[in-house]
UniProtKB/TrEMBL annotation:
This is chorismate mutase. It comes from Albidovulum denitrificans. Residues 1-86 form the Chorismate mutase domain. It comes from the Bacteria. SMART domains: CM_2. The keyword Isomerase applies. It is an enzyme of class 5 (isomerase). One of its GO terms (molecular function) is chorismate mutase activity. Its EC number is 5.4.99.5. Keywords: Isomerase, Lyase, Pyruvate. GO terms for biological process: chorismate metabolic process; salicylic acid biosynthetic process.
Amino acid sequence: MAELRAEIDRIDAGLVDLIAERITYIDRAAELKPALGLPARIDDRVEEVVAKVRASAVARGVDPDLAEALWRRLIDWSIAREEVVLGSD
């Protein structure tokens, strides 16, 4: 069990690293959107991201409902972060 837990901890740390990397791109998008006249939430883009995540989950044997729920939470958090810079609609 100790080895399994160590591997899970390693993966969790890697996931946090990837989330941190994703946040840098969210912050960059928030810098660029005002000049482009774009709001923080773009519903078509949200659904595009969710569809890609669901497809990726299916391809990897991951429950797509779980993946979608996680990403929708991540997307909502990201939009709220952008709204700090852009203001809410």
